[in-house]
Every structure is written in structure tokens, then in C-alpha cells.
Amino acid sequence: MPRSRVNRVQDSVHGLMEFRDTEAVVIDLLRTVEVSRLRRVKQMGLAEYVFPAAEHSRFAHSLGAAYVAIRFARQLHEAASDYLTDWLLPDPSSIRDLAVAALCHDIGHGPLSHQWEREVIGEGFDRDAWSAALHVSLDDAKRLHSHKWHELVGFALLGWEDGQLHQLLEEHEAGLSRRIQEMLLGEHYVPYLPQLLSNDVDVDRADFILRDAKQTGVGYGLYDLNWLASTSTLGTNAEGRVVVGFDVKKAPRVIEQFLLARRAQYDTVYQHRTIRSAEGMAALFLRRMKEVALASPDEFKHLPQPMRDIVSGATLDPSQVLSIDDQTFWGLAGHAAQPGFSDRTGQDLAQRLLARNLFKQVPCSSHALKRFRMEHDVSVLEDAIKKHCPGEPKFYYLYEEAFCQLVSKAPSQFAYFVDADHVATPIAEHDVMKPHLLGEPDEDSAPMRLFCIPEAIKTVVELVN
Amino acid sequence: MNDIKNGILALAVLGENTRAVAEELTGLVAREGELFPQAIVEQDSEEWRALAMAFGEWDDEEAAAVLRHFLDRLANGTAPRIEDLTRWVLNHSNDSGLVIECMDLDPPEGITINRVLSGAGSQKLVFHGTWLLTLREVVVKRFRGSPEAAEPVMDRESHSHPLSIDHPNIIATHLLRNSSGEVHLVEEYLPYVLSDDWRAPGVEEAANLLYQVANGLQYLHEGLHWVHGDIKPDNIGRKNNGYIILDFGICRPADEFTPEVTGTGSLRTRAPELLEADAYSGDPYKTDVWALGATVYNSVVGRYPLFDRDEPTPRVWDQPDRDNFERELGRRAREEWDARVDFDLVHPSLRPLLASALAFSPEERSTARELRERAEHELAAFLRTGYGEGGFRFAPVEELRQLSAHLPSGDAIVLMPIGRKQALADRLGQLVNVPGLSDEDREIAKGLLARIA
Questions:
Q1: Distance from B386 to chain A by nearest Cα, in Å?
Q2: Going by DSSP bridges, is the β-strand pair A416-418/A242-247 parallel, antiparallel, or unpaired?
Q3: Are residues B100 and B134 in the same domain?
Q4: How much is the ipTM here?
Q5: Could you tell me the residue range of the domain that residue B448 belongs to?
Q6: How far apart are the CA of A205 and the nearest CA of chain B, in angstroms?
Q7: CA–CA separation, B366 vs B372, rounded Å?
Q8: How many Cβ contacts (< 8 angstroms) between chains A and B?
Q9: In chain B, positions 41-70, which contact chain A (CB-CB < 8 Å)?
């Protein structure tokens, strides 16, 4: 008699995670270089500068998200069996698909995540050139026209025929890699399952809120995952679509707890002034490195080819992408910090980052900063701090708005409350939800902060006030 | 002590009659050391105030009647808790009779009574209660009359019990004893029970009503050899997408089925042969089948077969009128059958089965088994099958509509695992050919087949 397969993994957040039968492909995939690269990309970027234990990787988070995905999908099957025919309920294959998609949802991320993507790749990156380099077909490139760079890379890695990830998935079931690609784009034969990968209460957040809280030690960033999962169900929204939601009789308090936990992480960790300063400096450093690479390519001739290429704005193929990780960033910083590096600005920023000699927050009110920024050209500030800056002044300050929107305004991202008749109402529209839990109403109301090198703080305060 | 008195005197605001009883109660409070007044003092003063609040809009006389009865029960040492009395007062606005019925019921241990559900004029009173052990809402039945008269009724109802626990279409019944050892029938409470006004929303529901009640009747007829005797909307409840036969008060073995027994059965669903003098010469099981047919007929046409629309029925205690009306029904059955038992308004899919359930002659009428089996064949498109923990699931038409609305198209379907796609295609192939499916639904099934091809 064939034995069913069970793989177990101990996890600091979820305890013993079990992957059964077809779900066990998740464990096989951990061996691939594409997934394994995530071991070398930290989930929280430079948060360890403030919370020393926040060193966990995107690898641990992705595996946790895969496990949470299985729990949610199994619960949906149970909760909705009186509502939908079996053909529309999650079956073992679709639960496996969801888990694999959750495992792979971050495989395209570069080092430091958003700073890297914004500064090195650029928000207006050459999509056609990157698609071609990553072997993404023209049709698929068109479908991905509004997606971010890391989503394009993730899609490409799943479809890369020479890649271990693609080969292992295809070995498991012909066409599986394509199905996972589609699922990450929101399409699946169980049509509502992709919502669990990307909405206001999804498996990504369900894992990282707990993991980040645990690793940072921010205890009030916790929520009851067991209860949340047990309340998940299916309903029909106003457009007649089946959507994933939460039992309105049981879930309001745990959804509040979830949103509060996320808010606590925002306020205490993600928007922590020192972390924002460090990550802002990293962004400024990368921006400068890109300028140097274009102006003086020889500065980087001793660096590995993919690192050199990507810093100078060239595209990479999938195999080259796999060599880019957090070490790429620190290698670059280490190189630039050397005494012989010709660019004083880049060298100084690298040295400051390595020594954790970070910019400080200027002690001015958000209101005063917004007024100052509106009334004065950037040159006013740069002229004032120039005398304190070892390099170009525009690399020695950064403005930031701490915008926190806990519930999306895009219908595709809505999470729902579901009543006993399976009628689904977006949580933000339901009268059981307290408005203050939903975050800032718009970006204009987000508080503004200004960071600059410590030497210039006094000058800037006098200027702004 | 004064606090208790003040609590009781809060009742006095309702009027002179109530004041008199309240003062009698406060007078008792002063008689310290006596057992009877002690029972009053033990109640919390706030509970007395809550009772006064509950009386709210009650008439003085009605409220006084309740309090007077409470005093009597105090004297007997059988007074209920004020908390219970308050709940009954709240649940039966200005009706001292029903509150007194609640007070007089000694329910089985562990069951608290909430309100009277029905029973005026009937041979039994039906209460709504909460069974604390099981945390279920239940129906508790108490039979009127002497214990000797109640015993056979109780026996009939309880006989359906031992084998009915797991039957999806027959109410689960329990026998529980109170402190005096009297047996009470306790049934699961179904919050939704059909009524004369209930209309089947579409042929699907009418088909499921017919099929599921026939399924319950088949068990009753063939498994227990009993005739229910009173199939009608009020005796059919709903639970988990299913229809449940309730109330076995005049249920009895087929060989004991005599005209006297049906005196309290409904005239609305009475079979034509029971309207004749020489009743019961035939198969009594068929009377249940006709009653089921009449119930389904009413749910789709809006009247019972031998009745005019909204025609009232003389109550059971109004015997002369009832006899006259019964004779009139007999005349209609003999002389106006074709005009009255008219199937024009019945959905074509349902017509042949309903006609076979409502056949004038018992010999030509289907048995419950035949009805169920024919429904499985001819109405398969509409029947919810697959009874399990969660109750009945989906009829083929519902399955088709769900798939049509929610099964994606394009790449999502192209990429469906081969095995699942094949199984779905097989299922759609079955659905295309399911009996009873309309042309429109058949086209939906074909469209879905094309979608996954």
C-alpha cells in the first residue's frame, strides 16, 4: 500500500509545519537555486540596524506563507462546502498550487527590496529590454506591463526552461510552472484562490506580520492566526464574484487585531526613523553608484560581471539575476568604501552605512516641513548644508512621508466580511469596522520627515523654522 | 427586606388588581421564619424590578392573573424562578393564559422553557425550550387530558423515535422524564416550518419537497409500517437544505388506522377516500401520499386541490361546521374533481409526478417508494442529493448554474490538471443528459463542456 508523504519543518513562528502528499513539492522546491537565493535576501532590509534579531530571510517568510496558504485553503474547502459545488472548491492540486505560488511570490526580489528596485533598476525601467533579457515572451510582457520589476523577474524565473525551479515543477506535473505563473497574475481554475496571495488580509501579510513581530520583539504586533484562519470562508460580492472573506460573526475582532498588528509594525518598525534613515541612505548610495558606473565604468572593473552590469543599468538574464542578493549590495558598499575609490560622495555614504553612522531626523514638525518644501526650491536646503557635506549636498538629505494605508482602495485587493448567507461586504465598508483602523485617508495626510547628516542638523532646523 | 418589598411594589404601578397581589406578596415577606414567604425573599429585589419592567404594556387584570397564579404556586412550593417568569412575560405579551401554561409545565431536568409555540385547541401544548446539556433549542410537548388519555398519543409519537435519529427527513425525537417521572417528548427545534402561505421558489424546491418527504414517508411506511396521518405544510420543517417531517401525534400502525383517529387531521390535505363513508377499505399509506401531493400542489398553485384560494377551514372543535365542510369536500371530490385538481399551473416537469400523487383512486396513486424512485429519475435535475454532515448539497441545475457563473475561462481552464478536467467533463456529460433539465440548462451544460474542451 503506498504511503502518504509528509514533510515537516520546524519554524519559529508556526511551530511544526506539515506539508502532506502533493503539498510536499514545496519542500522539494527549497532545493532549487531560485528559491534558495532568498536565504540571502533579508526580509526586513536594514531593520537589523535597530532590531538586531530582525535578520530573517525572505526564504523563511516565503516558506511560512506557503504553510499559511495551505491552512487557509483547507479551511475554505470546509467552510464553503454548503455554498459551492465540489468543482469550485479547493482540491488538493489547487491547494498545492496556492502553496507553491506563495512560496514563489518573492523570488524576483533584489537586495534591500524596494530601495534596490527603485534606485538601481529604476521605476521607469526599460521593460522591453528586461523582458527580452529574461526570456519573457512579448505576449506575456504585454500582460505584465503594469507589474513591478521583481514581479517580472519572478514570472521569468518560473518560466525559465533551464532553471531548476521550472524543471522541478514540470517534473512534478506538466504545465505546473505556467499555472503558478498564472496564479501569481491572479488567474486560476479555482478563481478566488489567487486573492489569498494579494489582498488586504492575505497569506503574505499573515506570515510577515507575525514573523516580523517575533523577530523584532515588538510583541504588540502579534495577532491570532489560528482564529483568523478558522474564520476564513467564501462569499459572493456585489459584482456576483466569489471572493475570499471572513465570517462576520466571528472575525471582526481578529481582523481588527490583524490591522492593529500591522499598524503597530508600521509605526514601530517599518517607519522607525533610524531604519528609514538607513534605507534612505542606502537608496542615495545606490543612486550615486549608478551615476559613477555610467560616468566612470572602470571604477567597477574588479567587481563580478552581473554586479557591474546591473549597477550600470544593463539588463541581466535569469542566471545572472540569481547571483544578485544582499551580498551584492554589501560588496558594492565595501568596494566603494575603500580608500582608493574615486568618488568622494559614494565613498562617504558607503563608509557611513558600514559604520552605521546614519542621517538624523531633523526635529521639525511635519507641518513646518511641508510648508518649507512647498515654499522653497531644493537649492535653498542644499546650499545651507553644503558646508557640512563631504560630497554633493543632494546626497546628504532625504524627505520622507510615512504613509500607512491598511486597507486598499483597489477592489481587486479588498478583503471581505461574509455573512451567514454568504453575502460578502468589503471590510472597510462594513459597519463593524472602526474607521481609525483603516489607516490614513490619503497620502496628503501622511506626516513628513526630513533626515540629513548629523553635522547639518542645527543649520537645517534654523532654516526650516 | 425593605429592598425586596420595594422591588415587589414596583409591580403595583400596573393598576389596582396588580397592586392588590403585590401588596399580598409584600405582606408575606414580613412573615419571617416561614417557609412560604422565604421563597419570595430569596428572589433578588432587582429581579422583581425586572419582572415589573417586563409587564410593561400588559393590562392590569392580565398581569394580576399571572401574579395570582404565581402566588398559588408559591403556596404549593412549586413557584418558578422570577427570572423564568420574567422571560415568559416578555415572550407572551398580555396573555396570562400562555404564561400560566409555562408556569404549570414541569419540564424534564435540564430544559428551560422559553415560550409556548402552539397548542390552542389542540390535544397537546408545544413549548420552545433550551436543552442546556446539548445547548440546543428544542420543542417540548405536553399532552392535555388525563395521563391515561395522553399515554397512547405519547406512545405513537415515541414509536417514530428509535429508528428516526439519523433519518434526514424525519425529526429526531427524544423521551425525557421530569422530576415526577412523567415522560416528555423533546424534539429538535426547527426555526423554519412551512405554512399554508409558503410558496416553493421555483420547480427545484417543489421537486425537493416532494422527493424528500416521499423519502421520509417511505421509511415510515416500509420501515415502521406506520401512517403519519397528518402530512401538511405545518408539519414539515426545514433544516440544512432538507425537508423534515414533524409531529407524529396521530401517527399509528397502518392496521390501527380508523376514521376516528383522523378527526384532528387537516382537512386541507385529506385524501378523497377519507371523505367517503367507507373510508380505510384501501391502503391507508396512500392517504399520506395524497396529503404530500396536496402540500406540494399548494406550494406551487397557491391553494389546496379541493379548496378555493384562501378558503378557511372550520376548527377542530367546531364539529358541526367541520362535518358540513367535510361533506362539502366530499361533494367537490365526487363532482368537481377535474375542475379543481387542475395541473395547468404546475411546471411540466413536476406535473406527471404530482398527478400520480394526487390520483383520485388509491389504487392508481403512487406509493411513497414509487414517488421517490420516479422523482429520482424524472426530476433528477432538481434534486439535492449527497446528504451528509452539512445536510443536502446541490441539485444538478444548481451545480450547472454555479459552474456557469464561476468557472473561469481561458488559460485558467486550459491549465486545469488533466485528471480534474477529465472528471469535470465526465460530470458535465452526465448533467447534459440528466432527466428533467430544461433546454436552457442543457445549453448551459453544453457551453461549459465546450469551455473546458
A1: 11
A2: parallel
A3: no
A4: 0.87
A5: 396-452
A6: 25
A7: 9
A8: 56
A9: none
